[in-house]
Amino acid sequence: MQKVFIIFIVLLSCGVTAQEGDKEYSSYVDLSYFYGNISRHNNDILHLITGHPEGFILSWNKKTYGNREWEQLYNYPDYGVSLGYQNLKNEYMGNNVALYGHYNFYFFKRNLMLRIGQGIAVASNPYNKEDNFRNVAFGSKLLSSTYLMLNYKKERIFNRFGAQAGLSLIHYSNGNTKAPNTSINSVTFNVGLNYQLDAVDPPYEVTEGLTNKFNEAVRYNFVFRSGVNESDVIDSGQFPFYIFSFYADKRINKKSAFQIGTDVFYSNFLKEYIKYSSIAYPERGIDGTEDSMRAGLFIGHELFINRLSVITQAGYYLYYPIDYEGRVYLRAGLKGYLTPKKKLFAVVTVKAHAAQAEAVEIGIGYRL
C-alpha cells in the first residue's frame, strides 16, 4: 500500500505539468541553498537536533501567461518540478533526497513568490530497532514531503540571470504508515539564482470583464478512502483502514467551495491498540471490548486550481468509544478531477490530530 501511495503522490504532484497548448509558454530554472533549524514540535526528537540542517533545491518552472481563465484568476502562476537535498546534521537521521511537483504564486507586482511543493522523499538512515533505534522521526525509508518557500524574487537582473531570497519550511513524514513517525520540520533561510531559458517572455493575456464570480447549486460528494497505518506502539503491526464519507459542498466563487459532511472510520489498528492497552496499561480503564469504529462531523474548504484542488477539513468525533489522540481531527491534501465535468475524482490526504499524523488516505469519489 505504501508503494501505491508513493505512485499516487507522484501522479498528483507531477500532474501540474500536464497542461495543454504550450505554444505561449516559457520556462526557467532556479537553484537555492538553504540553512536553518529543526523545529522542536515534539520533545521526543530533542536528541535528533544536533546541528543546523542545510541543503539545496533545484527547480524547473514553466510560466503561464493567461491562455486559460484559471491562470489569470491566480495572477499567472508557474508550475514545475523540484529536486531537493537536505543534510539533517544528525548521525541518526542522515540525509534526505526528495522529488516534488510545485506551483509558484505571485503577489505585490510579482516581487513576492510563494511556492507550494508536494512530493516524495527517500531517507538515507531510517529507524531500525537494532542498528538505528534512536531515529524516531522516520519509521520508513520512503516518506511524503511538503515544502513552502516565500521569496523576494527578481528576474533578468543581468541578462537572463536573476536572484531570490527568503524563507522555507520543509516537512517530512510517512503519515504513520509505519511507526515511529514523529516527523521533522525544518525552518530555513534560502538564497539562490534563477536563469531564464528563453530570450524573451510573451505578453500576458488579459480578458476584459473576467471575474471570480460563480454560481452553482449545492453538490453532493461520496468518497471512499483506504490505506494502511500503525499505532504509535512500535512493531504493533500495519493494518488496513476504511473510511466512508459523505458531504455537501457549495461553490462561492470560481476558486473556493465550503463543505460540511460526515465520516465513518473503520480502523483495524485500533483493535490491536485496544487489546494492547487493556493488557499493558490497565490504569487507562480499557477492558478490550471497546468498539474500534469512530464517526465524525466535519467542515471544510476546497481551493480549485485548474483540475487540481487543495482540501482542508476539520472534524469532531460524535461517536468516540475509545480515546485516541483526542476528539478533534484534521485533514489536508490534494484532489484531482479525472473527468472534464469534474464528477469523478481521486484524492490523497493526511489525517491528523493536531501535529500527530494518524494516516495517509488514498481515495476515489464522485460529485453529483
List the secondary-structure elements in sequence, H or E. Answer: HEEHEEEEEEEEEHEEEEE
How does the major sheet shape up?
A: 8 strands, antiparallel, barrel
Overall 3D geometry? flat
Number of strands: 16
| Count of DSSP H/I helices | 3
Mean pLDDT: 92
In whole angstroms, the N-to-C terminal distance is 29 Å
What topology, given as strand order, has the largest sheet?
Answer: 1-2-3-4-5-6-7-8
The fraction of residues in strands falls at over 45%
Radius of gyration: 22 Å
In brief:
The protein is mainly β. The chain is 8% helix and 52% strand.
Keywords:
368 residues, single chain, 8-stranded antiparallel beta barrel, mainly beta
Please provide a written account of the structure.
It is a single chain. The chain has three helices and 16 strands. The chain has about 375 residues and is mainly beta. Strands 1-2-3-4-5-6-7-8 form an eight-stranded antiparallel barrel. An eight-stranded antiparallel barrel has the order 9-10-11-12-13-14-15-16. A hairpin with a 7-residue loop joins strand 3 and strand 4 (about 95-105). The longest helix has 13 residues, at about 1-15.
Secondary structure blueprint with pairings:
Layout: H1 2-14, E1 27-38, E2 54-63, H2 69-73, E3 78-87, E4 95-107, E5 112-123, E6 142-158, E7 161-173, E8 184-196, E9 219-229, E10 239-251, E11 256-267, H3 268-280, E12 293-305, E13 308-319, E14 328-337, E15 344-353, E16 356-367
Antiparallel strand pairs: 1-2, 1-8, 2-3, 3-4, 4-5, 5-6, 6-7, 7-8, 9-10, 9-16, 10-11, 11-12, 12-13, 13-14, 14-15, 15-16
